[in-house]
Amino acid sequence: MKLQSNLVVLRILYLVWVIFGILSIMYIPSQLIDFADATSTAVQIGSRESLFRAGILGRLITQLLFLVVVWYLYKLFGDQNKNATYLMMIFAFVSIPMAMYNEMNAVTALEFITAPDAMLSWLNLHQQGITVVSIFWGLWLFPLGYLVYHSPLFHTFIGIALYLGGIGYFLGTCVKLVYPEQQMLFTVFETLTMGEMVWVLWIIFVGAKRSELKDA
């Protein structure tokens, strides 16, 4: 019963996390920011400042939700392998304050609405901050992938998808930092990060194996 209740909470948390993440990390920036056009970006943000601020708030809430998600993952897998669970928590918890502090760059960008080039510089800095945090977004997926792969609650292919997601985040970050001109290679690694979404969508829409839940 305790296992089932933890899974129910995880499914709800992941659903809310995905909604906030899609809106604040993907949708809102795509509507306001054009890194190739500083003037257009300043105009868009200036005329829709509330939406830009909502994006900042949404990204902060996403990180707070992530904190709770990791805690419930610990409760789900803690008895399975302590070392892997602790490693998962360390990598995840390191990324959260980094990602939240990085939002200061977006807040600072608002002070330069009348100076488009300076504003875009701060937004670029915010984007680079996300690139750095992505290292830990990749690393935490390796112990999580190990736990899922060896758990009787989930199919092994989901664990493999998490491994691929970790590789995508980590190596994608390395390529972006060292070889930023290698866009095609970065795109390959970015595609691999979808392995994390396999896990997220599986948790939300499928959950765990019913046969194992009955025995829990």
Q: What Rg do the Cα atoms give?
A: 19 Å
Number of strands: 0
The largest pleated sheet is described as: none
How far is the first residue's CA from the last residue's CA? 7 Å
Q: What best-fitting shape do the alpha-carbon axes yield?
A: globular
Q: Encode the helix/strand succession as letters.
A: HHHHHHHHHH
Please identify the oligomeric state.
single chain
The SS-based structural class is: mainly alpha
- Note poorly predicted spans: none
Percent range of helical residues: over 70%
In what range is the share of β-strand residues? Answer: under 5%
| Average pLDDT metric | 93
Query: Count the helices. How many?
Result: 10
List the helices and strands and how they pair.
Elements: H1 2-32, H2 38-47, H3 49-77, H4 82-109, H5 116-139, H6 141-150, H7 156-178, H8 183-192, H9 194-205, H10 210-215
Helix pairs in contact: 1-3, 1-9, 2-3, 2-5, 3-4, 4-5, 4-6, 5-7, 6-7, 7-8, 7-9
Could you characterize what this model shows?
The protein has helices spanning 2-32, 38-47, 49-77, 82-109, 116-139, 141-150, 156-178, 183-192, 194-205, 210-215. With 216 residues, the protein is mostly helical. Helix 3 (49-77) packs antiparallel against helix 4, helix 4 runs antiparallel to helix 5 and helix 7 packs antiparallel against helix 8 (183-192). The model has no long low-confidence stretch (mean pLDDT 93).
